[in-house]
Specification:
The structure is a single chain. By secondary structure, the chain is an alpha+beta fold. The chain has a single domain, classed as outer membrane lipoprotein receptor (LolB), chain A, CATH 2.50.20. The chain is 28% helix and 39% strand. A 7-stranded antiparallel beta sheet has the order 4-3-2-1-13-12-11, with helices on one face. Strands 5, 6, 7, 8, 9 and 10 form a 6-stranded antiparallel beta sheet that branches. A hairpin with a 6-residue loop joins β9 and β10.
Length: 224
Amino acid sequence: MKKLLLFTFLFSVLISCKNNETKIGEKVETEDAKSIEQQIAEAHGLNNFDEVEEIQFTFNVKVQDSVRTSRSWTWKPQTDEIRLTEGDISRNYTKTDSIAESDKDIDQKFINDSYWLLFPYQMVWSDAKISEEKTGTAPISKEEMNYLEVSYKDEGGYTPGDTYVVYYDDDLLLKEWIYKSADGNREMPTTWEDFEDFQGLKIARSHKSPDGSFELFFSDIEVK
């Protein structure tokens, strides 16, 4: 009887271990199956975005020592209500699939500014074409890094056909990128630096050109 109980116990443990191995294996397989853009977006905090009720930020562009552009945004992602404050003027609109003609200028600014703020998420959210992961020399640091090419369709949107080459390190955070215009006449490399965590969203607050004469930076960032 004791031998029978011992056999039954060992058999139960074996089955339990086997089930646990299967579950662990399934979990690893699921993680490995994630696309590289999904992994990059999650490294920047994508999984925390669903909890965000409001984002405030100011988009600034500095050339040499002069700030040429500064505009502040309040965005409620769950309702897509957006407010722009530029100088003494404030405007509001709600982002929908069909933007009113009178709101297209503000929508174009919001798309541009929010893409700079949260581009790693846009790699998942948008309908961009993502290349396979490659290795190459980053344009500014000249370090060997992994990179992806993120390309947009030749039609639709405000800047159709644009391509972004994004370079990232082992922790999957963006370090540099190159913007390439659709006509091939313009390339613009900038850094991704000064990362800060805002309620789980990892945001690069500064983007600089190779010689530092151009800087696009964010201030007054608040995530609720």
